[in-house]
Each structure stands twice: as structure tokens, then as C-alpha cells.
Amino acid sequence: MFVPMQLHLPSPIQQLVEPLYEKMGVEVFVKREDLIHPLISGNKWRKLKYTLNKAADEGKQHVVTFGGAYSNHVLATAVAAKALSLQASAIIRGEEQQNEVLNYCKLAGMKLYFVDRLSYTDKKGCIERFFKGNTAIFVIPEGGASPEGVKGCKEILGENNETFDHIFCAAGTGTTAAGLYSYIQKNKLNTTLHVVPVLKSGDFIRNELAKHISIKEQLELHTGYHFGGYAKHSPALIDFMNDCYKKMELPLDFVYTAKLVYGVEDLATNGKFDPTSKILIIHSGGLQGNRSFKKGTLIF
Percentage of residues in the chain with pLDDT exceeding 90? Predict the structure, then answer.
């Protein structure tokens, strides 16, 4: 089942043909990071690339990370570690359970440790509890949020020669956004980065970004598209996901990318963009999370 990592890079850019965009006179494209790899997709690989290099440089053979029961990051870590002949473990938030994502992790050889939600907030305590005194482990932060993750995400925009007036990404930890913004600033692009937090009270993302980058101009946060909070959704969002696939053959996930694309459409509807603007949406992958839905909820 698990094969050596064959990554499809650079990830392709797809134009979205949508009457709304034509009406507003804008061109909208999506960078399909979800197509990099079936299980190590999108920004998950970008965040892991230099992180796993660092683990190797330090001579570590056992990586440990954190995530929820449907975490795309945990799955990507399991599969990447398997391909690189590394031992992998993950501390999972919530009561012990089985699902398709966790089963894939186990098949890849990852060992899972389940902890209650309160204990999970103490990451250092979890490491001490399960790996006390084990100097062979390399800890990967939840979601791959690290300077190495930022470095990997900087490469997303360096693969294509096209330029855009606006670039959009979803945000949970801000790692991807920090990488994109770093690239924009370093290359002096006349581009505005728009960040769509997928959690309530998403203004905290600005502080997370400031841990990695010096924020100047060319950055906007849009905090009104969280649909109730992290991993929350509504029937309207599910309908939107199905419509995007029917109209544009664009699969989205309900945690990140559906909220992102919904935000772009809403902003376009309300005249946010000048006519002739070129807009790029970063599809950060994460489609495995859709496996939590009952069969038939989504058409893709």
C-alpha cells in the first residue's frame, strides 16, 4: 500500500471558471497543492520537508507529533516517516477511537497515544508522560508549525512565474501564511496576501505570524468565515462544497479550503477586487478530513 514518495511538483495552477468572477471582471486561479501526493498533500508536505531534514541532521530516527482523530498532518507524518524509514508516533486529542485516517496511520507503522482534551493542551507533559528520558525522539509541533515549516511554505510561490494581485490562504496556525508573506516580501512582489483564519477570534493569527515574520503592509485578515469555529460547518458550507465540485471540479475540505473559497466568492460579490485583478487561491490539501462525513454527504 505504501510506496516511496513520488511527489507531483510543481503543483499545477487551475483557473476557476465561474460566472461571478466573469461578472466582476476578475480572474481567479487555484494552486492545487492537494495534488502533490494522495496522503502527504498540500501544505502538509511543505511543512514536513525541512522538519524531517532537521530530524535527519540531528540523527533522530523517531518522530513524534500531535493532532486530532482526523488530522491530515498526523497522516502525512505517518506516511512520510514510513517512506523515509523513520519510526513515528502521534499523541491524539480525545478518547480512543478507530477511523479510516487513523487506520492508515497504523498501517504506516505509526503508534498512537490517545489523551483527554485537557491533558492534550500540555504538550510538554504529554511528551514526558509517554517518552520520558527518550533522547532519540524528534518532536514535530502540532500542524507542523515551526520555522522549518515556514521555510517549506515559502517555496509554494516560487514554482511558477505568474504574478497575482491577490493571494489567498486559509490559516490554522499561520505557518503557511508566514511562508507566503516571506516570499512576497523577499521578492518585492506587488501582491496582497489575504489570510482567512478558520477558527473563531481569528485575529490571534496576526500574533502567530509575527513570531516568524516582520509584518508591514500587503497583508489582510478576513476573520468572518470560520462557520462557527475550527472544524465546524453548516449545511450551507456543505452545499457550497458540492457546488464547487459540480461547477469547477474543485474538491474542497470543510475545515480549511471550503471556508477559504467561500470567503473569496463573498468578497468578490461585495466588490472587494478591482476589475482585471488576478487572484490566486492556495489549495492546502486536507481532503482526508472529509472522511468524517457520512457516505453520500459529498458528491466527490
Answer: 92
Cα 280 from Cα 200, distance rounded (Å): 24
Strands in the chain per DSSP E: 13-15, 27-32, 62-67, 87-93, 111-115, 137-139, 166-171, 192-197, 219-221, 278-283
- CA angle, residues 140, 89, 145, in degrees to nearest 5: 20
CA distance 202 to 289: 21
| Cα distance between residue 15 and residue 281, in whole Å | 10
The pLDDT mean for the chain works out to 94
Cell of 15: 483557473
d(CA 137, CA 222): 38
Sign of the C-alpha dihedral computed for residues 177, 198, 11 and 69 taken in this order:
positive
Rounded distance between C-alpha atoms, residue 153 and residue 109, angstroms: 27
Nearest one of 140, 157, 171, 10 to 73, comparing CA atoms: 140
Read off the pLDDT of residues 48-93 as tens digits, 9 standing for 90 and up. Answer: 999 999 999 999 999 999 999 999 999 999 999 999 999 999 999 9
The residue with cell 507529533 is 65
C-beta separation of 225 from 285 below 8 A: no
Dist. CA 146–CA 11, nearest whole Å: 22
Neighbours of 114 (CB within 10 A): 16
Distance, in Å, from the CA atom of 51 to the CA atom of 279, rounded to the nearest integer, reads 30
Selection from 132, 140, 212 nearest residue 171 by Cα:
212
Per-residue pLDDT tens over the stretch 194-224: 999 999 999 999 999 999 999 989 999 999 9
Residues (pLDDT < 70) of the chain are: 1-5
pTM over 0.90: yes
Length of the chain: 300
